[in-house]
Amino acid sequence: MRAVVTNGAGEPSVMTVGEVPAPVAGPGEVLIDVVAAGVNRADVLQRRGFYPPPPGASEIIGLEVSGRIAGLGEGVDGWQVGEECVALLAGGGYAEVVAVPVGQVAPVPAGMDLVSAAGVMEVAATVAPNLHRMGLKAGETFLVHGGSGGIGSFAIQYGKAIGARVFTTASAGKLDHCRELGADEAIDYRGDWVAAAKDATDGRGVDVVLDVMGAKYLGPNVDVLARGGRIVVIGLQGGRKGELDLGVLLRKAGTLTATSLRARPAAEKAEVVRDVVEEVWPMYADGRIKLAPETRFPLGDVAAAHTHLDSGDNVGKVLLVVAE
Q1: Other CB atoms closer than 10 Å to residue 112's CB: what's the count?
Q2: Please, which residues bridge with residue 141 across strands?
Q3: How far apart are CA 32 and CA 83, in angstroms?
Q4: 81, 231, 319, 320: least buried by Cβ within 10 Å?
Q5: What is the average per-residue pLDDT within 181-209?
Q6: Residue 237's pLDDT band (boundaries 50, 70, 90)?
Q7: Contacts 24+ apart (CB under 8 A), 184-188
Q8: Mean pLDDT, residues 197-221
Q9: What average pLDDT does this structure show over 297-304?
Q10: What is the bridge-based pairing of β-strands 84-88 and 15-19?
Q11: Are 3 and 18 spatial neighbours (Cβ–Cβ below 8 Å)?
Q12: Are 47 and 61 in contact (CB under 8 A)?
């Protein structure tokens, strides 16, 4: 089968499309003929050598796909060959065929184009469980960084859907896009976004921060918190190691935590997928959450897809189209 292969770690040019053995469905797994794969920041980190797959996972990049069931492993029921689906992966998505535990496979949201569906599972499975974990509720103020990307575009709408007041940071040229998605406050990240968020809350600060930056924003995230506020770090775009004044966190009675979806056991991922289908898919169906803008690339242009994501020009979701 065709799949993206990497020659070491580094710039997008290390990725090419080659022939590799097709996977085989083991017990409890299904095979999926991939139609499209989502391109995520985690994929960029893996390409650069900073985010290796967990033990036993495919070395091929790609954490989410859409496609059609191509085969059933031993003990699998509830699916038939040819059915359309989406899946959350630990790896292997940039390929024509992928094997995945059946619990991580879900139906396509009602009325959604199959290619577009490749870009909805990873963001939903990242954002919704973390905001539940942080106890975000109606009436609270929620700040998500990177509001114009795939995670941010979903998080803004999801926060509004559950009744939160939503703030976001983005580059100046993308702030209108964030406001169109429902952000109550869209703040240029190049300015003093901490001061802007405090001004917008009469000095109180925000209740929950969803952070994709990591070390670079560690101190400012604590600074922007309201008393009893909570931070969850889900990405390391701004580095892994930072300094934190624990005294500030103590005075605010704040909570700081971090999670990684990829490394969770299959049983936990299956629970996340079930919850997403139950809660989030109806939000797409009734319009409370709309698809982010898309930029599509054919599988053979995978380097161009990563270059586009690296450039900072992207708005919304980047997709690799494997087969129409």
Answers
A1: 18
A2: 165
A3: 10
A4: 81
A5: 98
A6: confident
A7: 186/147
A8: 96
A9: 98
A10: unpaired
A11: yes
A12: yes
**Is the CB of residue 105 less than 8 Å from the CB of residue 86?**
yes
Paired strand residues for 158? none
Please give the model's pTM, rounded to 2 decimal places: 0.93
**Strands of the sheet with 165-170, listed across from one edge:** 185-188, 165-170, 141-145, 206-211, 225-233, 255-258
Q: Rounded CA gap, 115 and 126, in Å?
A: 20
pLDDT digits (tens, 9 = 90+) for 23-36: 999 999 999 999 99
Q: Residue 160's Cα: distance from chain center in Å?
A: 18
pLDDT for 53 equals 93
- Tokens read off for 219: 């101190």
Give the contacts of 221 (CB within 8 A, at least 6 positions apart). 209, 211, 231
Q: Among 210, 270, 218, 285, which residue's Cα sits nearest to residue 29?
A: 270
**CA–CA separation, 16 and 10 (whole Å):** 13
Question: Mean per-residue pLDDT for 232-246?
Answer: 89
Q: Kindly write down the DSSP assignment for every residue of 85-149, as one continuous string.
A: EEEE-SS--SBSEEEEEGGGEEPPPTT--TTGGGGTHHHHHHHHHHHHHTT--TT-EEEEE-TTB
User: Per this entry, what is the length of the chain?
Assistant: 324
Place of tokens 């709309």: 290
Determine the Cα–Cα distance for residues 182 and 167; give it in Å rounded to an integer: 9
DSSP 8: S
Tokens of 9: 């770690």
Nearest to 37 by CA among 105, 120, 160: 120
Please count the helices (runs of H) and the strands (runs of E) in the chain: 10, 15
